Amino acid sequence: MSVRSTDKRITAPEVRARKGAEPLVGLTAYSALTAHLVDQHADVILVGDNLA
């Protein structure tokens, strides 16, 4: 698994702009601890079990 080189957060418009271009890596984390552990490996993290 690769590691992101920066800690820069991406915004919703940046996600939209990448549509059809560079792939996004998205992960689901069921707790804040898990989210912290996978943060360096993903562009988008869904924390919890609901997406609203």
From TrEMBL:
<dbReference type="InterPro" id="IPR040442">
    <property type="entry name" value="Pyrv_kinase-like_dom_sf"/>
</dbReference>
<keyword id="KW-0489">Methyltransferase</keyword>
<dbReference type="GO" id="GO:0008168">
    <property type="term" value="F:methyltransferase activity"/>
</dbReference>
<comment type="similarity">
    <text>Belongs to the PanB family.</text>
</comment>
<comment type="subunit">
    <text>Homodecamer; pentamer of dimers.</text>
</comment>
<protein>
    <recommendedName>
        <fullName>3-methyl-2-oxobutanoate hydroxymethyltransferase</fullName>
        <ecNumber>2.1.2.11</ecNumber>
    </recommendedName>
</protein>
<dbReference type="InterPro" id="IPR003700">
    <property type="entry name" value="Pantoate_hydroxy_MeTrfase"/>
</dbReference>
<dbReference type="Pfam" id="PF02548">
    <property type="entry name" value="Pantoate_transf"/>
</dbReference>
<keyword id="KW-0808">Transferase</keyword>
<dbReference type="InterPro" id="IPR015813">
    <property type="entry name" value="Pyrv/PenolPyrv_kinase-like_dom"/>
</dbReference>
<keyword id="KW-0566">Pantothenate biosynthesis</keyword>
<dbReference type="GO" id="GO:0032259">
    <property type="term" value="P:methylation"/>
</dbReference>
